[in-house]
Amino acid sequence: xxxxxxxxxxxxxxxxxxxxxxxxxxxxxxxxxxxxxxxxxxxxxxxxxxxxxxxxxxxxxxxxxxxxxxxxxxxxxxxxxxxxxxxxxxxxxxxxxxxxxxxxxxxxxxxxxxxxxxxxxxxxxxxxxxxxxxxxxxxxxxxxxxxxxxxxxxxxxxxxxxxxxxxxxxxxxxxxxxxxxxxxxxxxxxxxxxxxxxxxxxxxxxxxxxxxxxxxxxxxxxxxxxxxxxxxxxxxxxxxxxxxxxxxxxxxxxxxxxxxxxxxxxxxxxxxxxxxxxxxxxxxxxxxxxxxxxxxxxxxxxxxxxxxxxxxxxxxxxxxxxxxxxxxxxxxxxxxxxxxxxxxxxxxxxxxxxxxxxxxxxxxxxxxxxxxxxxxxxxxxxxxxxxxxxxxxxxxxxxxxxxxxxxxxxxxxxxxxxxxxxxxxxxxxxxxxxxxxxx
Amino acid sequence: xxxxxxxxxxxxxxxxxxxxxxxxxxxxxxxxxxxxxxxxxxxxxxxxxxxxxxxxxxxxxxxxxxxxxxxxxxxxxxxxxxxxxxxxxxxxxxxxxxxxxxxxxxxxxxxxxxxxxxxxxxxxxxxxxxxxxxxxxxxxxxxxxxxxxxxxxxxxxxxxxxxxxxxxxxxxxxxxxxxxxxxxxxxxxxxxxxxxxxxxxxxxxxxxxxxxxxxxxxxxxxxxxxxx
Lengths: 439, 228
Fold this sequence. Notes:
heterodimer; A: 15% strand
């Protein structure tokens, strides 16, 4: 039996108060780890929302507003930019690709994004990953839609299904276009970005939604043809054979007048600043061009203070839990002078008493931290779905990172340091009391 | 065994000496009854003998070792190695089993642990044997310390004092919480063990009716020159 077991048994003897201390420490560790994990994952998923794009161009507005509306689908771009400007800028020297983006419509609370085939070819997120399909393929004509993974999951949509996309934001839009159904031809792999919560349609589909009178003829023919296809598919008992969705490639763009924004990639990064200056001084229309990486950093910088306050709070909670431990250990000390005297009588030296008290604090801290880590994983396991659905933050239940282990290390060292306070007191008690039992 | 000469001790901050003993000798194997009512400097003397405190003047020699010559840590080690202690009451750690209580001291004394191991028997087994001799049967040993009667607790404490064969047993009012029957049985068992291990017993009590059981009786009031 060494000092550690002695400390452990002594702790067991004072279960009630020690358990409470243990739990305050466990909860504070859980809170600290959770806040840090969510913060890091949020930052991660935030900065990996878009990559590989050199410029985002929209109507003249604040940089952050443009980024929020075009990439995060937050807020509204007040006005669009004209199709003519898009066509002009597209032809600039060094432009490798462009992705037009038209936003503003929604389907059951999920935003609808109009674009063209470049979207699937050039859009990159995370570490320059391109969009891939879980099932199906990209759209080929204006009656087809590709949905993000969250849309498929939450609305239980599958490839081959026909849906109606309404004009306007929000899921209570009364202005439904029942006569303009779209067929789901593809479901994208989860990306952990707003793409997951987006329905992707060709620009022309947006145009059809907004101006039905203009293209009535074609639309009816097309939708008739689609209904036919749909029935055809039914005959095959929902066969998952995607060939049933074969369709003729059609016009994806139509005749749009405006766009919300467009993304640009250059052949060489050298062109970026040049073209950006050109766009910002473009005469026919007031435009803004932003570099997504720079603006993302700017945006995160604004959230920095919130982040710091969260961290501060969790550190304070840890401190409070340590004060709780200190109180428990100190108040138990006066009741334990007899115990210390007995130990002294059987030959324990004051330094044994000191290390006994220290090991108690260390044991409580280590046990509390372990329970805290377990609770943290439990919380993450439960919170995973909610965070993904509500905020689009993908939390991984991965092992503790180096940083998190370091946090735990700091906590344990702090526990040991705080443990020296009652230990020093016990040391002097045992020096003065000796073997005489004072109660 | 114990030789005290010209010992003077006063607590820090007190102008007058608490204890002054010009000469006290205790022979090896002797069972000495030290009569000391409260206020006679009893606790102080025990603290000095155990090496918790050190005298300002004079010397205490135990087993030929002058305690004043030892450092604090060495005195703690000396106590752990050579002295077994029994207190008036509340002797045991409530969170350890009787057997664990008995072998507690072996954590702090290599010598006593070595004594145990040389006996060809595990420490646990020797503790059990010792408890058995003192009348603590298996049923009691499996109980928690708090469930034992005071008499039983005191016998467990005696076993702890004797384990590992220390040369000196200091018993500080060990019987004052016991009734007359238990008291006599306890002292009888204490002597049996002391004879078995050839240990010297220093038995301190205010109850002089016990004095006749011992080899010799010394009144602390009489030998303490600082006592008024």
